[in-house]
Design a protein that fits this description.
single chain; alpha/beta; 7-stranded parallel beta sheet; 31% helix; 12% strand; binds 2-acetamido-2-deoxy-beta-D-glucopyranose; Glyco_hydro_30; Endo-beta-1,6-galactanase-like domain-containing protein; GH
Length: 305
């Protein structure tokens, strides 16, 4: 937590608020100098992810006093970390037995034009409760819902795992047809389910580490393929009257350099103005320069203890 605490203290100081006393105590050995007269960039906030059923660890706690203590530690701006972003995982798995992210469309409706059979359970692996608490109780401003993969039946490999690409993206040929609109509808449905439960998803992503075909939920895409889908998703959100609160985020690349390349392809395809955030991870490389965009850039990496 050291880095996070230091950054939070710096952010608090930069915002002109009093540095948090308990952080000062725990960070007694460190000195941070903040020059409030210098402005470099806007910080949207700090956050964490509730994917892979981890939110259930909070949501299913029987001891409600302990649960409140934990939520306070995460979200309270005076006594906790004061996190301001929650990243949910939009599931793709029909398998609810382990750490999979469960989908609300477990069955192929018969084709991309068939009416989808959504099975919303009102829990979303415990993520909805955490988001409701975040928004209602603590005023968390950003909910970033992100899909690691489309449901398997929408993909070239007919599997939520091991990469595979969304059928209909350039370069794909699927006997099952073009699933781009069905996937966009599916993602918009997630936003609607959350909105109906009192949570506005502010950012919506359709990829996670698209250059890494993981043995768990994963979906491959290059920049051209992402650029092809962004207008479809954006138009779908617009038609559903969701763009007042929800914008498209892309692409959660494995590392900064990967995301620089994906963004370049998105820019040359003219899709950049449809983005609300450019998102990246830091596994194959951290921020090594400026991301060439005016769109806010969000970065996520491995938690360090
Ligand atoms: C979500 O957004 C809608 C549309 O802007 C708004 O009417 C509603 O109050 C918002 N809900 C919350 C909980 O902020
Ligand atoms: C979106 O809003 C327009 C204008 O208020 C309305 O006519 C239309 O029915 C809405 N569409 C949906 C899908 O809610």
């Amino acid at each position: 937590m050291r880095l996070v605490e230091a950054l939070l203290a710096a952010a608090a100081a930069a915002a002109g608020t009093t540095a948090l006393p308990e952080l000062e105590t725990r960070q007694a050995a460190s000195t941070i100098t903040v020059d409030v007269s210098k402005t470099y960039q806007t910080m949207d906030g700090f956050g964490f992810s509730t994917a892979f059923q981890r939110a259930n660890l909070i949501t299913n706690m029987a001891d409600k006093a302990k649960q409140r203590q934990l939520l306070d530690l995460l979200f309270d701006r005076a006594t906790g970390a004061g996190f301001s972003i929650v990243r949910t995982g939009i599931g793709s798995s029909p398998d609810s037995s382990s750490d999979h992210m469960n989908t609300f469309e477990p069955k192929n409706p018969g084709g991309p034009a068939a009416t989808p059979q959504y099975q919303w359970d009102g829990k979303d692996s415990g993520q909805l409760f955490v988001c409701q608490e975040a928004v209602r109780t603590y005023g968390v401003p950003y909910i970033y819902a992100d899909a690691w993969s489309a449901p398997g039946f929408m993909k070239t490999n007919n599997n939520e795992n091991n990469g595979g690409t969304l059928c209909g993206m350039p370069g794909t040929r699927c006997a099952s047809g073009d699933w781009r609109q069905a996937y966009a509808d599916y993602l918009a449905a997630y936003v609607r389910f959350y909105r109906e439960a009192g949570v506005n998803v502010t950012h919506l992503g359709f990829l996670n580490e698209p250059e890494f075909a993981a043995s768990y939920a994963s979906m491959s895409a290059n920049g051209n393929q992402a650029a092809d889908f962004i207008p479809v998703l954006h138009a779908t959100l617009r038609a559903a009257n969701l763009t007042d609160t929800t914008g498209v985020a892309c692409c959660d690349s494995e590392g900064w350099g990967n995301q620089v390349q994906m963004l370049a392809a998105i820019q040359s395809a003219g899709a950049e103005p449809l983005l609300k955030a450019v998102t990246t991870h830091t596994y194959t490389g951290g921020a090594s320069g400026t991301m060439n965009t005016k769109v806010p850039v969000w970065a996520a990496g491995r938690a360090r203890g």
